[in-house]
Automatic annotation (TrEMBL):
<feature type="domain" description="SAM-dependent MTase RsmB/NOP-type">
    <location>
        <begin position="83"/>
        <end position="452"/>
    </location>
</feature>
<dbReference type="InterPro" id="IPR023267">
    <property type="entry name" value="RCMT"/>
</dbReference>
<feature type="active site" description="Nucleophile">
    <location>
        <position position="344"/>
    </location>
</feature>
<dbReference type="Pfam" id="PF01189">
    <property type="entry name" value="Methyltr_RsmB-F"/>
</dbReference>
<keyword id="KW-0489">Methyltransferase</keyword>
<feature type="binding site">
    <location>
        <position position="291"/>
    </location>
    <ligand>
        <name>S-adenosyl-L-methionine</name>
    </ligand>
</feature>
<dbReference type="InterPro" id="IPR029063">
    <property type="entry name" value="SAM-dependent_MTases_sf"/>
</dbReference>
<keyword id="KW-0949">S-adenosyl-L-methionine</keyword>
<keyword id="KW-0694">RNA-binding</keyword>
<protein>
    <recommendedName>
        <fullName>SAM-dependent MTase RsmB/NOP-type domain-containing protein</fullName>
    </recommendedName>
</protein>
<dbReference type="InterPro" id="IPR001678">
    <property type="entry name" value="MeTrfase_RsmB-F_NOP2_dom"/>
</dbReference>
<feature type="binding site">
    <location>
        <position position="223"/>
    </location>
    <ligand>
        <name>S-adenosyl-L-methionine</name>
    </ligand>
</feature>
<feature type="region of interest" description="Disordered">
    <location>
        <begin position="1"/>
        <end position="42"/>
    </location>
</feature>
<dbReference type="GO" id="GO:0001510">
    <property type="term" value="P:RNA methylation"/>
</dbReference>
<dbReference type="GO" id="GO:0008173">
    <property type="term" value="F:RNA methyltransferase activity"/>
</dbReference>
<dbReference type="GO" id="GO:0003723">
    <property type="term" value="F:RNA binding"/>
</dbReference>
<keyword id="KW-0808">Transferase</keyword>
Length: 452
């Protein structure tokens, strides 16, 4: 998203809390003991035998829900089978190497990997030049437990160069936000929910493009958890001298304070934006990574436990917090700056619904940037312009008003459905909001996890 004029209203800075478990207990269908016992031993036809699914009811609801949502993108028939089958398969091992020109360490790392490949015995290796990365067609579990010399050598290589900071284990889809933001040496950048830090290190490397840092750019990496900040600190410490351009903060992302400006024109710019100094302070970041907390249901390839605990109600819990964090990010963004909103969820309630609400609240102050020509090597699907709002029993609700009139749900659950969950008018969604410009990374299109 690009900010091209100041917002016309102050962002909602109220705090939000992400709940781990839904408060509303689902009503389970009645079944006799024999049927229930048989269901426990039933095997999912597409599940990896090494990663069985103990709760098929959740997996069935997952498939029914996304068959309805993604059918609007043409994911039906044989393509649906490919999609769901890929979601059950483990991810390949992927890693990012420091781009050429940053320093000698990255170049040595590349030469070392070339020698490892030349020795033979590795599975198929796919270079990904758009993100300075490689994909090895083997799962991390198989790599970790293998006793083959070539694979043991790869595991040793990843550990060695990862500790030196020249190589970072990172999923392909996770590299996309920073690649789209096109960070430059002069940019002041923010990662709002940074831990464990792979996107942060990717952005820092971009600040050093061409060798030693020549601009005034730096990176602020934030996380709300002190424990996760320690993890972030350890990950970034491996970058050595490049970490001198890094500031780590521990603060709720939805209420991050403004960064003090380094130039003398800050007060004048703030006055120009809001009509009086301090009312609407000028943005302070050129690039913002807004990878918000989410239900994570696009990560089944990495976290197969999602199959037996999936619930639509997780999206209801996440939506308000995601909207608060993204609104705060836009408030901190400079006019002309870029913010990338992303999740590892497939759910439109956490993705397009949040983006649509942002655009409506900002009333023309921001727009979705057309990235259709960016990263042409990356296979993707467009964003949804319409979707269905359902409860956890997969009952559709046409509108917020209709749901509030319904007697099928308890009042406590009704309160968790907010109006911004519902899609805008179809013509507005495509012609005015341009929700189709969003990028959906579907697993079967590029052998990756689900991402938005």
């Amino acid at each position: 998203m690009r900010k091209h004029m100041p917002p016309t209203r102050a962002p909602d800075g109220s705090r939000g809390t992400a709940m781990r478990h839904p408060r509303h207990k689902r009503k389970r269908p009645t079944a006799d003991a024999a049927t229930a016992a048989a269901a426990e031993h039933e095997v999912h036809p597409l599940a990896d035998p090494a990663r069985p699914i103990p709760n098929l009811a959740c997996a069935d609801r997952f498939e029914e829900y996304y068959r309805a949502q993604l059918g609007r993108l043409g994911v039906t028939g044989s393509e649906w089978t490919r999609f769901i089958k890929t979601l059950h398969a483990p991810l390949p091992v992927t890693f990012r190497v420091q781009p050429v020109g940053i320093g000698t360490l990255g170049d040595e790392c590349r030469r070392s990997f070339d020698a490892l490949q030349a020795a033979g015995g590795l599975p198929e290796v796919t270079p990904l030049p758009w993100c300075s990365s490689f994909a090895v067609e083997i799962s991390k579990e198989a790599l970790k437990t293998s006793h083959e010399p070539a694979l043991a050598g790869l595991q040793t290589w990843l550990s060695k160069w990862g500790a030196l900071g020249a190589c970072t284990r990172q999923a392909i889809e996770s590299m996309v936000p920073v690649a789209l933001l096109k960070v430059e040496p002069d940019h002041v950048c923010l990662d709002m929910c940074a831990s464990p830090g792979s996107k942060t290190t990717q952005a820092i490397e971009a600040l050093y493009a061409g060798g030693a840092a020549t601009g005034r750019g730096f990176m602020v990496a934030n996380d709300a958890s002190p424990t996760r900040c320690q993890m972030l600190l350890r990950r970034c410490a491996a970058l050595g001298e490049m970490s001198e351009r890094l500031l780590i903060t521990c603060h709720p992302a939805q209420s991050l304070p403004w960064l003090p400006r380094l130039d003398a024109s800050a007060e004048a710019e703030a006055t120009a934006v809001g009509g009086e100094a301090g009312r609407y302070p000028a943005g302070c970041f050129d690039r913002i990574i807004c990878d918000v907390p989410c239900s994570g249901d696009g990560t089944t390839r990495k976290n197969p436990s999602i199959w037996h605990r999936w619930s639509q109600e997780y999206a209801l819990e996440m939506h308000p917090l995601q909207l608060q964090i993204a609104m705060r990010g836009l408030a901190l963004l400079k006019v002309g700056g870029l913010l990338c909103y992303s999740t590892c969820s497939l759910n439109p309630l956490e993705n397009e619904a949040v983006v649509a609400a942002l655009l409506k609240r900002c009333a023309g102050a921001v727009e979705i940037v057309d990235c259709s020509r960016e990263l042409p090597e990356l296979h993707r699907a467009p964003g949804l312009t319409s979707w269905t709002v359902m409860d956890d029993a997969l009952q559709e609700h046409e509108s917020h008003a209709a749901l509030q009139r319904s007697t099928a749900l308890p009042a406590a659950l009704k309160r968790r459905f907010v109006p911004s969950l519902w899609p805008p008018d179809p013509k507005e969604a495509k012609r005015k909001l341009h929700l189709d410009r969003c990028l959906r990374l579907l697993p079967h299109l590029a052998n990756m996890g689900g991402f938005f």
